[in-house]
Specification:
Strand content of chain B: 15-25%
Structural class of chain B: alpha+beta
Structural class of chain A: alpha/beta
Number of domains of chain B: 3
Number of domains of chain A: 2
Shape of chain A: globular
Distance between the termini of chain B: 66 Å
Radius of gyration of chain A: 21 Å
Number of strands of chain B: 18
Number of helices of chain A: 15
Number of strands of chain A: 11
CATH topology of the largest domain in chain A: Amidase signature (AS) enzymes
Largest sheet of chain A: 11 strands, mixed
Largest sheet of chain B: 11 strands, mixed
Oligomer: heterodimer
C-alpha cells in the first residue's frame, strides 16, 4: 500500500502521481475522508464539491492511463476560497447578498490550476467579502484553528488556512488584500505567500480592494508555494493590471542565503509586541545569521500610518466594488416599498453584515465631495510614502523580516466587538499590501498558551518583482528548521453549540 | 463675421430688453466599434434583449474591464478631426451611482484627466465654437418602463463605447446649436467614429443654457435633457430662452431660474423641472483601479493624423473650386461621406461633374427618400457609380431625354440593371430622325390652327405647346429639340 497522500506535499504528490503511483481518485477520497472527520471540529468548508472533484479525478486518471502528460499539480486535492469563481459552484463570499450565487464563468487562476491537474474539492469559509481578520464576519460559518479550536485560524482566508493546516487538503488558495493570507498562515503554522501585485490575474476573484487584492496560496511547504505560483502566475488578457513579470526562477540557489542582507525594521518590533512573538523572531534572526545572512537595521518610518491609510484606500475601493450587489441581476432581492431605490436599500440592508456596512459607509465617506482631498487623496499620498519607505530600505537590504502578526492566534470572540483592535492585527501586513510588494509568512516557532501549542509566523518581505528571492529565502530557512513539519493535534473536541461571532 | 453684437439675442416683447442666451452643448456619441468598450460582446443595436452580454458587462462578481483598442482609436481620430489636443497620459475614473441599468453601480468614465481637450467647430458664419474636452466612457444599459408594473432591463447597450464632447458656452442661438450639431455629426461620420443616429440613440445631446441682459455677467444655467432630434434641441432652446427671460422679467426672485435639470416635452414643446441642484448626485469619482492609464505616443498620433479622411469643410471648398459647384450643392453632396464619395466617383468616371452634382443631389436623393423604395442609404444602392456615369453619358450625348433618364434611374433603383439595358428594354432610345417622328408631329398639328397662325405670324415659341403631346406619343423617346424643329419645318411646309 502506498503512503497516504496527506504525508506528501503537493510537489511530492504530483511527482508520485505522474510516476504512475496511486490515483487521483484515491487522493480525492482520502481528502474527503479527512474533511468528513475534521469538519465537525474545524468548519472550514462553505461548500464541498465531492462529485465534481471525483469526476475531475476520474478524468485525470483516464488521461494518465492514456499516456497524456500530467501537469505540475496533477492529482493534488486543494481548496478554493468562497470568493473565487469556478463556473457553477456557489461563491457566496461569506455574504447573504450572494446567497446561492453560482458564477457563470471560471477565474483565470482557477482554470490554470485545473489545467495543471489540481483538483478543488470545495470552497472555504471566509470573512464576508474578505473583510476581517478572524473569519467571524461570515454569514455562514466560522472556521476554527486546528491548533486550538477555541481560537481563530485568522482571516479573512480562514477556511483555506484551516483546511491546509489540518491536512484536509494539500494546498489552498486565499486572497490577500491587507494580510488575509499571511496572517492566517501565521496563525495556523503554514506557509502563505502574497505575490507582487499584478503577478496573478484577479479575473474571477471577487473584488474587495482592487488595487490591493492578490490571489495568494497556502501550503505546508515553500516549495509547494513556488509550484502553485508557477501555475497561476502570468499575464492575463482579461485583467489589465496583470503583468508578465520576471520568472520565478531562484536567484541564488547555490549559495543559500549566504551574504544576503536582511533588514530588521525597528517599527516591526515595537515595545508592545507580544513577548513570545518577539522571542521566536529573535531566534529566527539568529538562524538567519547562522545561515550566513547579515542583519541590518532599517527604518520604515511611515509604518504607523499604514493601518489608517489602508482602511481609507481599501474601503473606498470596496464601497464602489460592492455597489453591484443591488438585487437586480443575482443574489436574493428584497422588494422594499416598490420603488427602485427602496429595493436597493432593502436588499443591501438585509444582504450585508455589520462589518461590510461599516466599511461601505467609511469608503463612501472618504470619497464624498468635500472629504475626498482630506481622506482619499491624502491616503494616496501616504501610500506613496509607504512605498518610498520600502524603496529606501531595499537600497540597503535584499529582504526584510518581521513578525507576520503582533500576536499568536487569538480567541474567537476576543476582538469581535472591537473593530479597531481587529484592524490592528494587520499592522505588519497592510504596509506590504499598500506597497504592492511580495511577502511570505512561514512558521518560525511555537508558543504555549493555556496548555496548547500555537504557531508564530515570520514575514519575509522582498522588493517588487523579487518574488523568487523571497520564496527561495523561505525555502532555505525552512530547510534549516522543523517548525513547518509540526502538525496540529488531532481528535480535538467537536466545537460545541453556535460558533462565537456567527450572526444569526 | 457678419453678425454684430447688436443683432444677436432675444428682445423681450414685454420690456424690449435685449437678452443674450448663453448656450453650451454636451453630446454623447456611441462609437461604431465591433465590440463593447471593456469586453468582447458585440456592439450592436436592435439585438434580442440581453443577448449581447457577458460576465464583464453584466457585472458578475470578479469580472474585470479591458480597454478596447478600436474604441480608443476612433476616439483619437475624432479628437484629431476636431483639432483637439490629445493628452499623452489620461486615466479612467469611476462615477458611482445606483440605477437598475448600471450593472456595476458605477460607470467607467474620465473625470479630471480626459483623453483630449480643446479643439472646436467653425460655423458657416465663421464663428468658432470651442470644445472644452472630449472624454471616453461606457454607456449604461436600457431600462424599459412601459411594460406594465415591472421595469425591464436590457444590458445589450451596457458597456457600449461613448465619447462625450463638451462645448464651451459659445453659442447664442438655437440656429448656432443646430449648425454646431450638424457639423459635429458630419465630422463623427466622416472619421468613421459613429453612425450618429439619434433615433437609435447613437447620438444624444444635452443643452446647458442661461440668459443674461446684454453687457451683464452670466447667470444661473439650466440643463435640458431628453432631446431626441436636432429639431427638439432647437425647440427646447427657443422655449427655454423665453421661459428664462419671462422668469427674470417677472421681477419676483422666487420665480428666477434655478440650477436644475429640465426635461423637454416634445409634444407640448415645453421644458419641465426634473431635479434641482440640491438633489444632484455626489458621484464620488475616483481613479479606476482596474485599468492602467491610457498612454498615447506622438508617433501614434502622427500615424492617425495622416490616415484621417478629408473633412467636410475642406471637401466643400474643393468641390466649389475644382468642380465649379455652388456652395449649396457642395453642401448637399458633402453632408454624407458615402454620398460625396459616390458623387466624386461618378464625376470622375463621367467627366461631367456639374451634371453628376445635379442628378445626384436631385434625382438620386429623391429616390433615396422615396418611402416606396426600400433603399435608404448610398451603401444600399443596387448599382455602381459606373452605372450612374453611363446614364449621365447617354443624357449628355442626347441618346435619351431627361424624362427618359429619370425613368431609367428609377428602374436602376428597382432592378439594379445597367442603364444601357434599361434604355433598350424600356424602349427609351431617343428618336431623333424617323418617319415616326414626322407622323407624331403631323398628328399633333391637326386642328391646331391658332398655334399654326401664331407661328406664321413670327411667334415661334407658340410651337412649344405642341412638343408635349408629341413627347407623350413617343413615350418620352423623342428628342424635344428635334421635335420642335420638325414642327416648325412642317408648319413652314404647309400650304398657307
Amino acid at each position: 500500500m502506498s503512503r497516504p497522500a496527506i504525508s506528501l506535499d503537493a510537489c511530492g504528490l504530483a511527482a508520485a502521481y505522474g510516476a504512475g503511483q496511486g490515483s487521483a481518485e484515491a487522493n480525492v477520497r482520502e481528502a474527503l475522508t479527512r474533511i468528513d472527520a475534521l469538519e465537525p471540529s474545524l468548519g472550514a468548508f462553505a461548500t464541498l464539491e465531492r462529485e465534481r472533484a471525483l469526476e475531475l479525478a476520474a478524468g485525470l486518471d483516464r488521461d494518465r492511463a492514456a499516456g497524456v502528460p500530467m501537469g505540475p499539480l496533477a492529482g493534488v486535492p486543494m481548496a478554493l476560497k468562497a470568493n473565487m469563481c469556478w463556473k457553477g459552484v456557489e461563491a457566496h463570499c461569506g455574504s447573504r447578498v450572494l446567497a446561492g450565487y453560482k458564477p457563470p464563468y471560471t477565474a483565470t487562476f482557477v482554470q490554470r490550476l485545473l489545467d495543471a491537474g489540481a483538483i478543488p474539492v470545495g470552497m472555504t469559509h471566509m470573512d464576508e467579502f474578505a473583510m476581517g481578520s478572524s473569519g467571524e464576519n461570515s454569514a455562514y460559518g466560522v472556521p476554527r484553528n486546528p491548533w486550538d479550536t477555541r481560537r481563530t485560524p485568522g482571516g479573512s482566508s480562514s477556511g483555506s488556512a484551516a483546511s491546509v493546516a489540518s491536512g484536509m487538503v494539500t494546498i489552498a488558495l486565499g486572497s490577500d488584500t491587507g494580510g488575509s493570507v499571511r496572517q492566517p498562515a501565521a496563525f495556523c503554522g503554514i506557509a502563505g505567500f502574497k505575490p507582487t501585485y499584478g503577478r496573478v490575474s484577479r479575473y474571477g476573484l471577487v473584488a474587495f480592494g482592487s488595487s490591493l487584492d492578490q490571489v495568494s496560496p497556502f501550503a505546508r511547504s515553500v516549495r509547494d508555494i513556488e509550484r502553485v505560483m508557477q501555475v497561476i502566475s502570468g499575464v492575463d488578457h482579461a485583467d489589465s493590471t496583470s503583468a508578465q513579470l520576471p520568472a520565478l526562477e531562484p536567484e541564488f540557489s547555490e549559495s543559500g542565503v549566504r551574504g544576503l542582507r536582511i533588514g530588521i525594521p525597528r517599527e516591526y518590533f515595537p515595545a508592545a509586541l507580544n513577548g513570545d512573538v518577539r522571542a521566536r523572531l529573535e531566534e529566527a534572526k539568529r538562524k538567519w545569521v547562522e545561515l550566513g545572512a547579515t542583519l541590518v537595521d532599517v527604518e520604515l518610518p511611515h509604518t504607523e500610518h499604514a493601518i489608517p491609510t489602508y482602511y481609507v484606500v481599501a474601503t473606498a475601493e470596496a464601497s464602489s466594488n460592492l455597489a453591484r450587489y443591488d438585487g437586480i441581476r443575482y443574489g436574493p432581492r428584497v422588494e422594499g416599498d416598490g420603488s427602485l431605490q427602496s429595493m436597493f436599500a432593502a436588499t443591501r440592508a438585509a444582504g450585508f453584515g455589520p462589518e461590510v456596512k461599516r466599511r461601505i459607509l467609511l469608503g463612501t465617506y472618504v470619497l464624498s465631495s468635500g472629504y475626498y482631498d482630506a481622506w482619499y487623496n491624502r491616503a494616496l499620498r501616504v501610500r506613496r510614502l509607504l512605498r518610498q519607505d520600502f524603496d529606501l530600505a531595499f537600497q540597503k537590504v535584499d529582504l526584510i523580516i518581521g513578525p507576520t502578526a503582533p500576536t499568536p492566534a487569538f480567541l474567537l470572540g476576543e476582538k469581535a466587538s472591537d473593530p479597531v483592535a481587529m484592524y490592528l492585527s494587520d499592522v505588519m501586513t497592510a504596509p506590504v499590501s499598500l506597497a504592492g510588494i511580495p511577502a511570505l509568512s512561514i512558521p518560525c516557532g511555537f508558543v504555549e498558551e493555556a496548555g496548547v501549542q500555537l504557531p508564530i509566523g515570520m514575514q519575509v518581505i522582498g522588493p517588487a518583482l523579487a518574488d523568487a528571492r523571497v520564496l527561495h529565502a523561505g525555502r532555505v530557512f525552512e530547510a534549516a528548521t522543523e517548525h513547518h513539519l509540526r502538525r496540529p493535534p488531532e481528535g480535538q473536541p467537536k466545537a460545541a453549540g453556535t460558533n462565537p461571532g456567527v450572526r444569526a | 463675421m457678419s453678425t454684430t453684437n447688436s443683432e444677436i439675442g432675444y428682445v423681450s416683447p414685454k420690456t424690449q430688453v435685449r437678452w443674450i442666451p448663453v448656450i453650451g452643448l454636451e453630446v454623447h456619441c456611441q462609437l461604431k466599434t465591433w465590440t463593447k468598450l471593456f469586453c468582447g460582446c458585440r456592439n450592436e443595436f436592435g439585438a434580442t434583449p440581453n443577448s449581447r452580454t457577458c460576465p464583464v458587462c453584466t457585472a458578475q462578481p470578479g469580472a474585470l474591464p479591458v480597454l478596447n483598442r478600436e474604441a480608443l482609436e476612433l476616439a483619437l481620430r475624432t479628437a484629431l478631426a476636431l483639432g483637439a489636443s490629445v493628452a499623452p497620459t489620461s486615466k479612467f475614473d469611476r462615477k458611482n451611482y445606483f440605477y437598475c441599468d448600471l450593472p456595476k453601480g458605477y460607470q467607467i468614465s474620465q473625470f479630471d484627466q480626459p483623453y483630449c481637450t480643446g479643439g472646436g467647430i467653425t460655423l458657416e458664419s465663421g464663428k468658432r465654437v470651442r470644445l472644452t474636452r472630449i472624454h471616453l466612457e461606457e454607456d449604461a444599459g436600457k431600462a424599459i418602463h412601459d411594460r406594465g408594473d415591472t421595469t425591464l432591463v436590457d444590458l445589450n447597450r451596457a458597456g457600449v463605447p461613448l465619447i462625450e464632447s463638451v462645448s464651451e458656452a459659445d453659442m447664442q442661438t438655437s440656429q448656432e446649436a443646430f449648425e454646431y450639431l450638424t457639423a459635429l455629426k458630419e465630422i463623427l461620420q466622416y472619421v468613421g467614429a459613429s453612425d450618429c443616429d439619434m433615433e437609435k440613440g447613437s447620438l444624444r445631446c444635452d443643452v446647458n443654457i442661461s440668459v443674461r441682459p446684454e453687457g451683464e455677467p452670466w447667470r444661473t444655467k439650466v440643463e435640458l435633457k431628453n432631446l431626441n432630434s436636432f429639431r427638439n434641441v432647437q425647440a427646447s432652446i427657443e422655449f427655454e430662452i423665453r421661459r428664462q427671460v419671462e422668469a427674470y422679467e417677472s421681477g419676483d426672485p422666487a420665480q428666477f431660474p434655478v440650477q436644475e435639470t429640465r426635461l423637454f416635452d416634445a409634444e407640448k414643446g415645453v421644458t419641465r423641472s426634473m431635479r434641482r441642484k440640491e438633489d444632484a448626485h455626489d458621484y464620488r469619482y475616483f481613479p479606476e483601479p482596474d485599468l492602467p492609464p491610457i498612454t498615447v505616443s506622438a508617433e501614434r498620433l502622427d500615424r492617425l493624423r495622416s490616415a484621417l479622411p478629408e473633412l467636410p469643410t475642406a471637401r466643400r471648398a474643393r468641390y466649389q473650386k475644382d468642380f465649379g459647384l455652388s456652395a449649396y450643392d457642395a453642401g448637399v453632396l458633402t453632408a454624407d461621406r458615402a454620398l460625396s464619395e459616390f458623387f466624386e466617383t461618378v464625376a470622375r468616371l463621367s467627366k461631367l461633374p456639374k451634371e453628376a452634382s445635379n442628378w445626384i443631389s436631385n434625382e438620386l436623393l429623391r429616390n433615396l427618400n422615396d418611402p416606396l423604395l426600400p433603399i435608404r442609404s448610398i451603401d444600399e444602392l443596387p448599382f455602381r457609380p459606373h452605372d450612374m456615369s453611363l446614364l449621365l453619358g447617354m443624357l449628355d450625348k442626347g441618346e435619351i431625354s431627361g424624362q427618359a433618364g429619370r425613368k431609367v434611374l428609377r428602374a436602376m433603383f428597382e432592378t439594379g440593371k445597367s442603364p444601357k439595358d434599361l434604355v433598350a428594354s424600356l424602349g427609351l432610345e431617343q428618336v431623333n430622325d424617323s418617319a415616326a417622328l414626322d407622323d407624331w408631329c403631323r398628328e399633333a398639328l391637326v386642328g391646331k390652327d391658332k398655334i399654326i397662325a401664331d407661328v406664321r405670324a413670327g411667334k415661334t415659341k407658340a410651337v412649344g405647346a405642341l412638343v408635349g403631346p408629341v413627347m407623350k406619343a413617343s413615350k418620352g423617346s423623342a428628342n424635344p429639340q428635334v421635335v420642335q424643329e420638325i414642327l416648325l419645318r412642317l408648319i413652314a411646309e404647309m400650304p398657307s
